Amino acid sequence: MSVVMNLPAPPEGTCNYPLDEPAYESQLAFFKCATRIHDSEKLKAHLLRIQKKIYERFRYPCVWNFDFVRGKVINHPLFPEILTFKKERQEEQNIFLDLGASVASDVRQVISEGWKREDILAIEIDQEAINLGYEMFIDSDRPIPCFIGNIFDPNIFDPTKALEKTSSRIDLFSLKDMNLLKRRVSFISCHYLFHLFDRDDQERLANYCALLLSDEPGSSIFGTHKGSREQGPQSLDHLPGTYWYNHSVESWVQMWENIFNPETVKIVAELKESNSQTQYKFLHPSEKILWMSWSVTRL
Question: Is 90 exceeded by the pLDDT of residue 5?
Answer without folding.
Answer: no
